[in-house]
């Protein structure tokens, strides 16, 4: 199955010339696909075509249109939460996004489990491309004094906790929720997080040099922040043996090293 998909990917990438990785385009009527990352199916579709999708057991599926309105396209098909004919229908209008999600994300429909299906009910005259991605099931929040949202894109999930803890307690708070203490992969990701949750107060991150003094590593991903740094002027200075990176407060959006035993808020994240 994996080999067939890989061959299809290479073929359709050349054929469709798409910017997406792992694209499977098909003009066949229906089929079953395992969604490792993302799959794109394009029409024209005929009525009664049924496509079935499955992803990793602890993940969900998100459907969106590459171009155009998913709500308008709903007249041509129904998206079902599961594989059976009587699985409940998922509609754009019924989707409840977690509390602080971006308002400008593409209109999408989420399954509540690892399988979903699309049933075409009438032949679409114009061609459209449906994107099906593996996504994280993002909770509304993580209990009191917390907020969650699709803050960066439609597939990942971010949560803020407004209970102050030291850095290792925040690491474990995230792990207990099936998440990781934040690691900024890019300036864009950092910007979106900092514009969602104000930086009046301090937030712990997973960047630390506890393992080797002076060597900073994102402990959540075991990656060096080599391609992207945002230290405040004169930081990190290791005053009072400061081994954990915090942002917010006096340093606003920039990074400072602080004693890991200090208490701060934190952001947890999870990527599919
Ligand atoms: C963090 O706080 C916990 C108590 O909540 C404490 O047991 C632990 O030693 C603290 N760790 C650090 C590094 O300060
Ligand atoms: C955090 O650590 C610094 C020392 O680097 C200290 O001056 C400050 O008071 C601490 N803040 C809190 C809230 O513990």
Label the overall shape: elongated
Work out the helicity level: 10-25%
Q: What structural class results from the helix and strand content?
A: alpha+beta
Q: Say which molecules are bound, naming each kind only once.
A: 2-acetamido-2-deoxy-beta-D-glucopyranose
Question: Which architecture of the largest domain does the CATH hierarchy give at level 2?
Answer: Sandwich
Q: For this structure, what is the CATH homologous superfamily of the largest domain? A: Spermadhesin, CUB domain
Average pLDDT figure: 89
Low-confidence stretches: 1-21
- CATH C-level class of the largest domain is Mainly Beta
| CATH fold assignment of the largest domain | Jelly Rolls
What is the total domain count? 2
* SSE pattern, N- to C-terminal: HEEEEHEEEEEEEHEHEEEEE
Q: Major sheet, described briefly?
A: 8 strands, mixed
N- to C-terminal distance = 21 Å
Proportion of residues in β-strands? 25-35%
